[in-house]
Amino acid sequence: MTTAPASFVKGLEGIVAAQTEMSFIDGVEGVLEYVGIAIGDLAKHSTFEETVYLLWNKRLPKKQELEAFTKELRANYALPDGMLDRIRTVPKQAEPMHMLRTMVSALAMHDESPNDNSVEAAREKSLKILGCTPAIVAAFDRHRRGLDPVAPDAGLGFSANFLYMLNGEKPTDAMTRAFDICMITHADHGLNNSTFTARVVISTLSDMYSAMTAAIGSLRGPLHGGANEGVMKMLNEIPTVADAEKYVMDKLAKKDRIMGFGHRVYKAKDPRAAELMTLAEQLARDTGNMDLYEKSHAIELVMEREVASKGIYPNVDFYSATTYHCIGLKLDLFTPMFALSRIAGWAGHVIEQLDGNRLFRPKAEYVGPHAVAYTPIDKR
Ligand code: CMC
Hints:
Blueprint: E1 23-26, E2 31-34, E3 37-38, H1 39-45, H2 48-57, H3 63-74, H4 83-88, H5 96-107, H6 119-144, H7 158-167, H8 173-186, H9 193-202, H10 208-219, H11 227-237, H12 244-253, H13 271-287, H14 290-307, H15 316-327, H16 334-354
Antiparallel strand pairs: 1-2, 2-3
Helix pairs in contact: 1-8, 2-16, 5-6, 5-10, 6-7, 6-16, 7-8, 8-13, 8-15, 8-16, 9-10, 9-16, 10-16, 11-15, 12-14, 13-14, 13-15
């Protein structure tokens, strides 16, 4: 095989490094499809379970297939023996994303064949990790509040079960649906940084747990999934709607980034942001948080006026912050929520990568000196 001439592209912008059948993005038109279905249609009509089935099987399930898949996922809600004890040893002030990364890594030690990378085993591991990570996050949050964990309820769907384990009471249908829409809209997104990370790790034929652990580490960065927490901090820093314009203008003047805006691929409004904006407005109204929504909207209008010409628009993280707050989630659980959903995408990509794998091994362009004489230590 011939090697293409080396040309360095900072941040790998525009480089096609994998093929996928899961999600399609048109960044100019602002389109996102999962297996050809518009994200807006999935947000309106689908459930998280059905969306995961779609991503993993590349088609919508028939009724019985969805029932069987849901049953399998629910059978994986419970944590392996010993995991709760491990969660109780985590310092209460630990950041949930650090905790989650560590606990997903620990799941490997409860798997009798963690290194089995057959498609069948990878699928089972995906179900296990997707099924039980909500219990990890909920148990840790309760642990730091001095509360006992709540056992999962296999009679509940993914979203309702998570909120139940977190709060100890069954969520309303409206909250469950809102959370489910968040899960649907975050499930997959092409070769984003964390998904690329997962594919790079599995391309060494390492294991599903290592790929997921590395992906969680990538996701928590403020330029990626961590931006939703940054958005909430920003909203908290802005006293009233009337202060939003000055806040944004001051930040832009200092060349600071406004969290929840901009995207490597989208140069139009992220279609997920459009879905979540509608959801955030509804929830804000229902929960008495209209100030948050109005501040967000005011920020969006200033950003549109100032930087839309550069292709900077709200991304998925912008309105998800208000949405998660209205669902009653603490700020440092926002990025873990992204992870709970994106595990579906990471797992699907790991399985795609394993099918016809080739090791990722790009090159670095050496820009240092050559033929440098070695200087003995007492002469330096
Ligand atoms: N606020 C203000 N200016 C921005 C922003 C922003 N959020 N994002 C980009 N710019 C400007 C940037 O300053 C630069 O301007 P100039 O050309 O004058 O120097 C120009 O836009 C291009 O920026 P870039 O850094 O080359 O763009 P990128 O493709 O490397 O960055 C990004 C993409 C997402 C890292 C960036 O837009 C950003 O930092 N956004 C804020 C963090 C954020 O919301 N991240 C979530 C991304 S979407 C969900 C996810 O993937 O997790």
